[in-house]
Write a structure and sequence with these properties.
Distance between the termini: 41 Å
Largest sheet: 4 strands, antiparallel
Order of helices and strands: HHHHHHHEEHHHEE
């Protein structure tokens, strides 16, 4: 069980509803959103507790908003429909401001990103009670010359999806990683995801202006 907080719901749901209205109509959107709030709370009760203060917990809170809406729609939102919604939400002007704060073509920005990922790992080391449920960080600074690389062999979202028959839709959430990379002028090269049956979820981020990253 992960402690409920409404802040992610309050920020993301209005953006989802705005995206949905054109294709589904206001009545369906409002009805689905009302059902989704109850489902969202249920999902948080069902997921493994990674620690509400875990800096990585936002991944669960945010993804579950999208998945709760998809589930509440009872099949009327297809996989491609959900993918379209996520693209439109991630294209909002406020989120595009991330590119002002961080630019993956800047070595300093890459360094800051790496420091943040290592801080996430440090949090987990300081809270070992959540290690079995949370993401495990594996860094390799020798694998690539450019950008920043790490991988996970465990993901609580993957665990939840496998237990609750949502594995088919989870890759849409994995694709958000590519969208967020674009917001900070980066590309994400990925060979595997746990959701698709791979041994790891790998992340190699590098600046989008590099012609031949290594």
């Amino acid at each position: 069980m992960l402690k409920y907080t409404g802040k992610y719901w309050a920020v993301i749901l209005p953006l989802i509803k705005k995206s949905m209205r054109h294709d589904y109509g206001s009545d369906f959107v409002n009805e689905t959103a009302a059902k989704a709030k109850r489902i969202y709370r249920e999902m948080l009760r069902e997921v493994d507790d990674v620690g509400a203060d875990n800096p990585m917990a936002s991944n669960v809170y945010e993804c579950f908003v999208f998945l709760a809406v998809w589930k509440a729609a009872e099949g009327k939102i297809t996989k491609e429909g959900l993918r379209k919604i996520t693209r439109e939400v991630l294209s909002t002007p406020a989120l595009r401001l991330m590119g002002v704060v961080m630019n993956a073509n800047s070595p300093k920005s890459v360094e800051k990103f790496g420091a943040r990922m290592r801080a996430n790992q440090d949090w987990l080391e300081a809270h070992p009670q959540y290690k079995a449920a949370s993401w495990d960080f594996n860094f390799d600074e020798t694998l690539h010359r450019d950008g920043f690389y790490y991988h996970f062999t465990h993901c609580p979202l993957n665990d939840y999806a496998r237990r609750h028959d949502m594995l088919d839709i989870l890759p849409v959430m994995c694709d958000i990683d590519h969208m967020t990379a674009k917001l900070v002028h980066a590309k994400l090269h990925r060979e595997h995801t746990l959701a698709s049956g791979g041994p790891v979820c790998d992340y190699w981020f590098y600046g989008d202006k590099l012609r031949e990253p290594k």
